[in-house]
Design a protein that fits this description.
This protein has 146 residues and is an alpha+beta fold. The chain is 38% helix and 27% strand. It binds zinc ion (ZN).
Length: 146
Amino acid sequence: MSNNEWQVLNVVKTLDEVTALVQQHQVSKFRTSNLKTSTKYSYRCSQYRKYPLCRYDIHVNILDNNPDDIKILSKNVHSHQQHNTTTRLPSSVRESVAKYVKCDLTQTQMKSALSIDHSNIPLPSSQLSNIIRYNRRKNNPEIFYK
Ligand SMILES: [Zn+2]
């Protein structure tokens, strides 16, 4: 299901079409980049706050010398499963991890802290890194888009 390459989603002629398309794809603008010969608008999942791990991205490229040939590129697909993954864990574990993330513990430190605080709850590393990532992004979404 994952698609990590930019691919052309559509080529349109007007900004209205762009607006309709980004609404249809449930993304919202978060950055404008002025490049040498074009302007690039970056969009990301409009439910980003709810699903911080969703990597769906859309770029809209408008060439300075050809503004009615607007290229829309997309990358990845909406992925809203991680939210459910994190909620499947006992809330006590999720609260602890949220707390550890705020204290800036490393994953290894969290693992040992969790094995003391929640020794009866098995927690696979992959799931642990998911909630850590989830919490870090929630706290500081900007750093992942530099
Ligand atoms: Zn999404």
